[in-house]
Design goal:
Helices cover about 75% and strands about 0% of the residues. With about 220 residues, the protein is mainly alpha-helical. It has one domain. The radius of gyration is 18 Å and the shape is globular.
Length: about 220
């Protein structure tokens, strides 16, 4: 990662946090930014009164949603040519191919799950755009995933800051690393289990029809 989360927050506050989350969520070079650690650190700072927690949560969620939409539109505009692009300073073909494999296996659920996997979350909306996923369906998964990611990761940092406000810096980063690994292990096992995966798909499908079914039938 090119940037330290604490430096980002200290130097730019909410505005720079919004830009980093937006860029990491949908711009091709966004994978260089520290998304999860930024949210965890921001939540920790909010617990210490250095950031307002409610505006922080709103800004992160909105920035993530808007960033994913930009990535989606990028995929729709440039199509399969995105997969042929060669590595550069701010692009890694390997990461977008990983996102493509994830999308092929899990479909729309990828937009939700990718939020918790660095690099994949940057390219997942682009892959969805290339795959011509209907925008209203993408929007549902995008909003659901962004809100879940924002609340779970940021509030984890907030809870750590509330429980241990005077924690040593190195100990804090140790907790963050362990918590992040633990979270990834849980998500991996959830999506590895076919029964859980099918149930999750069914539930999300039902929610999607609940929110968008009336709109489609009335048009």
């Amino acid at each position: 990662m090119f940037f330290d989360p604490e430096t980002i927050i200290t130097a730019g506050g909410l505005l720079l946090i919004a830009f980093i989350v937006f860029a990491e969520s949908g711009l091709l070079f966004g994978f260089i930014f520290p998304g999860d650690t930024l949210l965890l650190t921001a939540g920790f700072f909010a617990a210490q009164g250095k950031l307002p927690i409610i505006p922080l949560l709103v800004i992160i969620a909105v920035s993530a949603i808007l960033g994913d939409n930009v990535g989606y539109q990028t995929g729709r505009k440039f199509g399969p040519s995105v997969f042929k692009r060669q590595d550069g300073l701010f692009f890694r073909r390997e990461y977008i191919l990983q996102a493509q494999r994830f999308y092929t296996r899990y479909g729309g659920i990828t937009i939700v799950a990718a939020r918790f996997f660095p690099w994949i979350r940057t390219f997942a909306p682009i892959v969805a755009g290339v795959g011509k996923m209907p925008w209203y369906r993408f929007a549902f998964f995008n909003i659901f995933g962004a809100v879940m990611w924002t609340l779970s990761v940021t509030m984890l940092g907030y809870l750590i800051g509330t429980a241990a406000p005077d924690v040593d810096q190195y100990f804090f980063w140790g907790i963050i690393i362990i918590a992040h690994i633990f979270m990834l292990i849980i998500l991996y096992n959830i999506f590895k289990n076919p029964l859980v995966r099918q149930r999750l798909k069914k539930n999300l499908k039902e929610e999607w029809h609940h929110f968008f079914g009336r709109k489609k039938s009335s048009s």
